[in-house]
Please model this.
Amino acid sequence: MVKEFNLVIIGGGPAGMAAALEAYALGIKDIAILERDDSLGGILKQCIHNGFGLHVFKEELTGPEYALRFSEKIKETDITVLLNTMVINAEKNKTLYAVNPDFGFMTIKAKAVVLAMGCRERSRGALRIPGANVAGIFTAGTAQRFVNMEGILPGTKAVILGSGDIGLIMARRMTLEGIKVLGVYEIMDYPGGLTRNIVQCLDDFNIPLHLSTTIVKIHGIGRVTGVTTAKVDKNMMPIKGTEEYVECDTLLLSVGLIPENELTEQMGVGMYQVTGGAYVDQDLETDTEGIFACGNVLHVHDLVDYVTMEGQKAARSAKAYIEESIEQKKTKPEIKVVPGNGLRYVLPQHIYLKDNDEKIKVFFRSKARYKDIVVRALINDEVIAKKKVIRLIPSEMESIEIKVSDLFIQTDNGINLKDLVIEVEQ
Amino acid sequence: MKKDIICIVCPKGCTIHVDYDETGIKSMEGYSCKRGIDYATAEILSPTRVITSSVKIKNAKYTVCPVKTSCPVSKDKIQEVMKNICCVQVQAPVKQGDVIIKDVCGTGADIIATQTLEKEKKV
Model:
């Protein structure tokens, strides 16, 4: 079976739903969402805690409520939603191959594609923790789905490795369901999650947070019976003599997220190593014409609100691509955006000088923790933008606004191209 | 009594040192704005939280349905509210916003569904 659409969105989570609705509102006809789960909403469905939507809706919603705001609206449109649908292969010319129980194997042709596949969790294999290969080790998100959607508790006495937000949320959730949470262990000397989660998930329930501490061994036969923890030094190597045995039957891992880009790579789309997502311009277009990326598949976000906004932006760019020719853009001068002193990554990674009036928000994350600093944008040794930041930490994304007119001036109208550097002022 | 409170109103995350007794707050240090004072005062005198959890559901795609308190409730009521939520079982269909328990534990808050779950036909 061959299906043709103007716009195909891969993934029906917050990024994909926002992209679909925005595209529909802009008048694009023949939109399809391909979703592998049996309903729209993505990971929001299992995030039953509140705190979503403060930016987009100006109120605090739970994950399922936030997702419903979009999925209910999609129901009222003629957007094609293909559920239980797995895209198994994709080509650079925007031909997708997918399977689902209703239609079997499908060939789907699209004028434009929005990648919105989200991310997945780093697992034990990625950490290489020594010890027994036993049951009872879960990523925090897997445990979250078990508890919040399927009504299954993962164990009775739990240890959490990593202080990412999902781990902190699960510390509270498991405590409320009667599981004893013995502690959260974080290898860094600062917590990975948002402050509000440290306060409301750990402090509220007197769950200890052990910083600069990791797990060096997992014990058990058949099922986890305990873990050995150890303090780490400045190079994050375990310190001999600081080992402690903690008895538990469950170990949750909250140790980072990886954008899920297998399809992106199959399409031959250029990747940006630091984010693990596609290499994009200011329109969120990848280096492959007509393929856009948004949400956690592009880079891991702190807040779903930002994912929504990025999805909407990708849809606006896709509309421009479908209705006009993008050829024009690729012939314009192109400036690379690079992270300088103190920063880990920037997004977008390149800017086309196509519109003198354009203003571009460049997002970035820091490598370390900073207080009361100035972040600046530098091109041709000229500072073209400055922003005071009270607190800059790796777990909270920041942004700085750039005027394209400044880039035109500093490059002699795109003749002498230099890199645009975003950095912490020394 | 002395207590350190990390303010969560903005990303700055000030640590506010509060000295207080039964009669109220005696002194406060470390805040950098009025919102910090308000937050710390509420955290000391009457801390509240929105509780989110799940209730058992029959005839739906999943075995549990997520719920929340319709407004923040006193922090020391959390355990009592959880005990009440545990005992409840509902039948699909459930619509987001449906009241599952009215005025839970006399807090004035209702327990409401946060998800819409249709009745599933057994195949």
Summary: The mean pLDDT of chain A is 95. Chain A touches chain B at residues 38-39, 45, 48-50, 60, 62, 64-65, 68, 147-151, 176-177, 195-196, 198-200, 203-204, 390-391, 396 (CB under 8 Å). The two ends of chain A are 59 Å apart (CA to CA).
